[in-house]
Amino acid sequence: MKRYFATTIFATVCGAFISWAPTSGMAQTFQQRPAAGKQAYVEEKAHRVSAAITGHPSDLSPAYLALVAARVEAYAERVGANTQGAAGQEDLRLVLERGAKYAPTFAKIFQARNVSPLVGIYLPMMESEYRNELVSPAGSSGMFQFMEQTAFRFGLTAEDRNDPVKAADAAARYLSEMQGRFAGDMWLSLLAYNQGERAVETLLGAVSEARGAACSICLLTEKKDTLGKHFQGEGVSYTPALVAAAIIGEYPQDFGINMRPLSTLTSSK
C-alpha cells in the first residue's frame, strides 16, 4: 500500500489498548511544553503505544524516537489550524472527529484477526486521515490505501477499496498473514504493508540481526543509510508515523483536543 501522507472497551478481552484517565486538569498542553518536556513526553507515550501495538515492551532507539517526535510535532501544529478540507493540512480535530465514526468498527475487525486494534484505528489515520475518497499518485485508494493488485489478492474489487469495512478486513488479513511470515513481528508486518514483503525480506538480508530482534524496526532505522532509497524515503518514517498518530488519538486532551481517546469509543449502532 502506498501512503498518501507522510482502549478501554476491548481491554478486558485482549489487553491491547492503553488505559485512559481524563487529563483536563493538565497544566500544559504538549504545544506549551519546553523542548525537553516534549522529548520526555514522546518517549514515555511512544513506549506505551509500542507495547500496546506489539504486545510486549520495546526498547525504542533514540533515532526511532526522533522520527516519532517529529511527526507528533507536525500533528500538534495542526491543532486549531484555520484550514478545512485540505488533505494533510486541516485542523487535526476534524481528522479525529472523522476517525471517531470508524474507530469502534475498525478495532473490532482487527481484533477478530488477532491484530492490535490500535493498528486498526490508527493505520487509516496515518494512511489517509480517514478520507475514503483519496487516490494517491501511485494509484492506491480508500482509507487503507490499497493498490489494485493487493486488493485483488485479498478478494476486493477495485471499488471495494473504497468500502471502509471491506478494506479494513482486508488490511487486517494482510497484517495477520505478515505476522505469520515474520514470526509475529508487527513492525516488520507494518513495513511490509507499506513496502511489500519482498522488500522487507531484502532489508532483512542486508541487516540480518533485525530478524527476531526485540525492536527490528529500530535496527533498520539505525542502518538506514546503508539501505535502499525506497526505505530511506517513505519506509523509515512509516511506523513512527503510526505511533505518532496513536499518541495523538489516545491522548487528545494533552494536545488541547477535548475528546475521548479513539480506542475508548463504542459504536452507536
**SSE order, as H and E?**
HHHHHHHHHHH
Low-pLDDT ranges? 6-15
Number of domains: 1
Mean pLDDT: 88
Query: β content, as a range?
Result: under 5%
The CATH class turns out to be: Mainly Alpha
Number-wise, the strands total 0
Class of secondary structure makeup: mainly alpha
**What value does the Rg take, in angstroms?**
17 Å
Shape label: globular
What is the terminal-to-terminal distance? 30 Å
CATH topology group: Lysozyme
What can be said about the biggest beta sheet? Answer: none
| Helical fraction | 55-70%
Count helical runs.
Answer: 11
CATH second-level architecture: Orthogonal Bundle
Descriptive overview:
By secondary structure, this protein is mainly α. It has one domain (about 10-265): Lysozyme, CATH 1.10.530. It has helices at about 10-15, 35-55, 60-75, 90-110, 115-130, 150-155, 165-180, 185-195, 195-205, 215-220, 230-250. α5 packs across α11, α7 packs across α8 (about 185-195) and α8 packs across α11 (about 230-250). The longest helix has 22 residues, at about 230-250. The chain is globular. Residues about 5-15 have low confidence and may be disordered.
Descriptive keywords:
11 helices, 269 residues, globular, mainly alpha, Lysozyme
Short recap of the structure:
The chain is mostly helical and 269 residues long.
Secondary-structure blueprint:
Blueprint: H1 8-14, H2 35-54, H3 62-76, H4 92-112, H5 117-128, H6 148-153, H7 164-181, H8 186-195, H9 197-206, H10 216-222, H11 229-250
Helix pairs in contact: 2-3, 2-11, 3-11, 4-5, 4-7, 5-11, 7-8, 8-9, 8-11
